[in-house]
Q: What sequence folds into this?
């Protein structure tokens, strides 16, 4: 059996560990800090076989050089972003495929948060999909638009949505409560949001992660995947009117204002 689990890092990052039973090898995603990974490897006697990098921000790559030097592991990241990444053993781009333990991995280009942000879509032996999406999709939210356009982020989020309902997503931050509180302002009549907020508050109170999340759950509660819903549009419209801006006419424009509203809230 496979398992994926989070190593907390910094204030609210997760470094995801991918491993399987009866196999000493493991992989990590976005080790911004080497210390929690070293501690985990020491405690479990596992070997670090490789590192996946979603994007160049320091809280995602800060531990890569130390770990790759100590464990001589594979380091996989964006071919287009190599100038900003630690040395890679494998540079990849949209559509590339490779094997990770017994998982099949497909690379998705998901620009928006950064220009060359990648997501890694992994299919396990049972056909279950696991997507490591970095800072592009969060539970009930999406990443800030640091380098890309709203149109790019919209397309990236659509690409991440094009998977079966049972697909699991592994974002790199525990932002869920803040995102759900904001989503409740966007869709105040949503029972699904109220329910999810209560569940996630209980998880956080017990110091447990609210992640991974599923496609089904995000489709029901993530406002960035619900831009065509009348209540979502009505709420964004109100914010846009307060800003004295013209009303949005495209999905990307709705997303642009929703993200601005979140930044301002
Ligand atoms: Zn980032």
A:
């Amino acid at each position: 059996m496979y398992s994926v689990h989070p190593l907390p890092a910094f204030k609210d990052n997760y470094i995801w560990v991918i491993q399987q039973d009866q196999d000493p090898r493991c992989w990590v995603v976005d080790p911004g800090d080497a210390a929690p990974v070293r501690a985990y490897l020491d405690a479990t006697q596992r070997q670090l076989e490789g590192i996946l990098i979603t994007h160049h921000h320091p809280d995602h790559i800060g531990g890569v050089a130390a770990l790759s030097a100590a464990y001589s592991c594979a380091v996989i990241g964006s071919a287009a972003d190599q100038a900003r990444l630690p040395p890679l053993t494998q540079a990849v781009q949209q559509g590339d495929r490779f094997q990770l333990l017994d998982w099949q991995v497909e690379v998705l280009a998901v620009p928006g948060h950064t220009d060359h942000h990648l997501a890694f879509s992994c299919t396990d032996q049972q056909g279950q999909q696991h997507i490591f999406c970095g800072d592009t999709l969060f539970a009930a939210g999406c990443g800030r638009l640091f380098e890309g356009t709203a149109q790019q982020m919209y397309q990236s989020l659509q690409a991440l949505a094009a998977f079966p309902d049972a697909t699991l997503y592994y974002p790199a931050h525990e932002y869920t409560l803040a995102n759900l509180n904001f989503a409740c302002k966007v869709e105040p009549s949503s029972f699904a949001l109220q329910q999810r907020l209560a569940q996630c508050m209980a998880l956080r109170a017990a110091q447990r992660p609210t992640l991974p999340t599923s496609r089904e759950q995000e489709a029901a509660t993530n406002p960035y995947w619900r831009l065509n819903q009348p209540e979502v549009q009505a709420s964004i419209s109100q914010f846009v009117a307060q800003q004295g801006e013209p009303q949005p006419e495209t999905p990307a424009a709705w997303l642009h204002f929703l993200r601005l509203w979140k930044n301002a809230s």
